[in-house]
TrEMBL record:
Family that this chain belongs to: Belongs to the UDP-galactopyranose/dTDP-fucopyranose mutase family.
Cofactor: FAD
Entry keyword Isomerase: yes
Keyword tags: FAD, Flavoprotein, Isomerase
Entry's Gene Ontology cellular component terms: cytosol
Organism placement in taxonomy: Bacteria, Bacillati, Bacillota, Clostridia, Eubacteriales
Protein name stated in the entry: UDP-galactopyranose mutase
Signal peptide interval: none
Length: 360
């Protein structure tokens, strides 16, 4: 008899498992994949470079509680992410800041005067109803087309006008020269990798793990009191109301016989090529070696579910499933897939901590 059956061994499952195990609960975690760590899983490739199998994961948070909890299981490489965007044949800082504007327009704005530029170009007196509106009211239509329209269409497969405004609301516009992609108090990557951090987190006598295991095939064979589910909500209920749409990504890894491929960790390609961005892992990990590995990302509609598609009709469909969840006894849904919403890693960790607090 297990106190908790946890489906999924990513952040949601692993964090809740560790906290419950420390309270004396017996835990069984099952995962379809052949590894722990969910989408944060990393490994050393054939050239000895630590790569993220499911795309770059840079941890950043303002939550001291979340940072201190994870710090129990890892030391950190204190990395601050830099992103450039390939626009009109040149690489410029992203998010848009003072230097971005000056490089593109040949201007000489300062931190004190850049607001004059944004006030001049932004669209005024329009109601913000979608992702496009959110951007043009901040930076105007020209910068929107340069940086956002093409990228969003590649990323989501639909135009920004068809997406909820929250998609672009989280993208900052800087009125200074700060070229860090994130400005959170705590930023970095686990020093020995995410997988090692998860191994340490799950190293507890009350935690048992079954990989290569589909929950549906073992649920009737396992005795347990409560369920924590981090998979897709629609799949759990056999798609009884229809399928929730997700965006997936195809990853193209390449190792090059050179020191570095690009100047920063990630370069976005909003208008050129089929891929959305290229990430070079040595920037993220600080490794020193004579070759380098990059990954190109191609967004697609089929494949592993990564991003819930932020449209109101999809949220309405999810609410039908949420009602079903609320009718279950001793069952809790967590994570991007279980709650059908985009969340950064720190929010996922915080949600798991809060759940265990509530169960207490």
């Amino acid at each position: 008899m297990f106190d908790y059956l946890i489906v999924g061994c990513g952040f949601s499952g692993a964090v809740s498992a560790r906290l419950l195990a420390e309270k004396g609960k017996k835990i069984l975690i099952v995962d379809k994949r052949n590894h722990i760590g969910g989408n944060a899983y990393d490994y050393y490739d054939d050239n000895g470079i630590l790569v993220h199998k499911y795309g770059p994961h840079i941890f950043h948070t303002n939550s001291k509680r979340v940072w201190e909890f994870l710090s129990r299981f890892t030391k950190w490489y204190l990395y601050q992410h830099k992103v450039l965007s390939y626009v009109d044949g040149r690489l410029v800082p992203m998010p848009i800041n003072v230097d971005t504007v000056n490089q593109l327009y040949g201007t000489n704005y300062s931190n004190d005067t850049i607001s004059e530029f944004f006030d001049k170009v932004r669209e005024k007196d329009i109601e913000i109803n979608n992702a496009r509106d959110m951007v043009v009211t901040k930076v105007g239509s020209q910068l929107y087309k340069m940086f956002f329209e093409g990228y969003t269409k590649k990323q989501w497969g639909i135009m920004p006008e068809e997406l909820e405004k929250e998609v672009t609301a989280r993208i900052p516009i800087r009125t200074n020269r700060d070229d860090r992609y994130f400005t959170n108090v705590y930023q970095g990557l686990p020093l020995d990798g995410y997988t090692k951090m998860f191994e340490n987190m799950l190293n507890h006598e009350n935690i048992h793990i079954m990989l290569n295991t589909d929950y549906k095939f073992i649920k009737s064979e396992i005795q347990y009191k409560s369920l924590i589910y981090t998979g897709c909500a629609d799949e759990f209920f056999d798609y009884k109301f229809g399928r929730l749409p997700y965006r997936s990504i195809n990853f193209e890894f390449e190792t090059l016989n050179q020191d570095y491929y690009q100047k920063v960790g990630t370069v976005n390609y909003p208008n050129d090529y089929d891929f959305t961005r290229i990430t070079e892992f040595k920037h993220l990990t600080g490794q020193k070696c004579y070759n380098t590995t990059i990954v190109r990302e191609y967004s697609c509609s089929d494949g592993e579910p990564y991003y819930p598609v932020p449209q109101s009709k999809n949220q309405k469909l999810y609410l039908e499933y949420k009602k079903q969840v609320e009718n279950l006894e001793n069952a809790y849904f967590l994570g991007r897939l279980g709650q059908y919403r985009y969340m950064n890693m720190d929010v996922v960790v915080d949600e798991a901590i809060k759940l265990v607090d509530k169960l207490k």
